[in-house]
């Protein structure tokens, strides 16, 4: 098989008509870190496609989709908004609005006797909002107040570290202190410290939360701090941006950026061939399509590009474990049954089919590039087969029989106590890949007597957290490992009527042992203790088989010849948008 690594590209027909428009780094180093050249900006337009339309610029403040990364909508904020710090390629976290990061040795990061924390942050002196108003510490204090209030925390589902961010106090225009109610070891990455334009939103916020949610600031009149400012938004079509020439890092290399919403991959491909869009970001086209296009353009010598980006997003099925909702009764609420259905799947064959062999089998939440992977590597296959749950139809049948499930005359398993047939449903996303994956699993399970129904979510159902959280069967998702052990597996993240169905532990997995490990990880600084906790987490999250892990996602980025810059980091491809270029 020919190499499937990097090089090809695509372009997409524009849906908008461009209107006439007038480890730590402190910002010294590569172009990706420091921003654009000081040379006079050149007029260049870059047209970028994503697969869905973002609902809001700030889902924490306003509420948003149950799938905040679906279709690549999470690429929007980085285009127009900067926070304190950001992770870039190679695992390097750079300073953005942060002029100085809190440091224990300098006394600017203090852990108090009651285990609360105070962190002193300094912001850069030349940052401005897109309307020209200077960014000050008051904007951060206001942002902390809004994002930490009970309504925002309900939107977050209780899983984010920001629940520990209690308040902030301005010292002067460029200095503020963030007060945390508990220890959060990763707080120096800028978690929760997203400024909000106090001069625009304070009066709206004081008028009531409903008024804030309805503000056009979050949709068509956004004012941010990032390298591009909003010019026009056309519902269902796209967003036009222009370069913010007063950007504190220096003007971006691209003068105009058109973000287009193209939900249908086939339409993307048809438009690509017309050559009117420059970049397709994940989640746009699948691996098969990208590989075929790569071959075509390589043969033509076009110079177009494809990057096959590996990420720690795990293609997985989250099992409904709450007996109140799980059906059939006495099936997936039992660990032996879950293990049996996992071992009934040839996951290596699934990997080869879905990722062209570019991904390894995912045995657990720890991606090989995860910073904590070295802590658990020796516990994983091939070094240790304990968590492999290899393809073994005979073992699967034995486990099912032991749990009381025997094939009936029609070839479908039946519960020997209740007579219930093993008919099961999985909720999956729109698009050819999720359905293809589910169809492959459907065939494997049919062979052992499970009748699988594949339900493709409508857009309304995808945005309905209550619907997904009260399903009877499994739900496809691609949560990252860091999100999983960062709180998604915690029982505090289980949605319920009391939380207005917010929270992303939608399978209702509940393990006191795992809850304890996750809580300790959030507040443990010592590396040896962290290693021990991650090893405990591996066991507590893998042995019960609450999720069916398949593979790590491969996300293609497609670019025409001459485009440079886009890379996938932490589910986002636009994190370094100020250095994107088109020659």
TrEMBL record:
<feature type="domain" description="Solute-binding protein family 5">
    <location>
        <begin position="101"/>
        <end position="477"/>
    </location>
</feature>
<dbReference type="InterPro" id="IPR039424">
    <property type="entry name" value="SBP_5"/>
</dbReference>
<keyword id="KW-0732">Signal</keyword>
<dbReference type="InterPro" id="IPR000914">
    <property type="entry name" value="SBP_5_dom"/>
</dbReference>
<keyword id="KW-0813">Transport</keyword>
<dbReference type="InterPro" id="IPR030678">
    <property type="entry name" value="Peptide/Ni-bd"/>
</dbReference>
<comment type="similarity">
    <text>Belongs to the bacterial solute-binding protein 5 family.</text>
</comment>
<dbReference type="GO" id="GO:0015833">
    <property type="term" value="P:peptide transport"/>
</dbReference>
<dbReference type="GO" id="GO:1904680">
    <property type="term" value="F:peptide transmembrane transporter activity"/>
</dbReference>
<feature type="signal peptide">
    <location>
        <begin position="1"/>
        <end position="26"/>
    </location>
</feature>
<protein>
    <recommendedName>
        <fullName>Solute-binding protein family 5 domain-containing protein</fullName>
    </recommendedName>
</protein>
<dbReference type="Pfam" id="PF00496">
    <property type="entry name" value="SBP_bac_5"/>
</dbReference>
<dbReference type="GO" id="GO:0043190">
    <property type="term" value="C:ATP-binding cassette (ABC) transporter complex"/>
</dbReference>
<dbReference type="GO" id="GO:0042597">
    <property type="term" value="C:periplasmic space"/>
</dbReference>
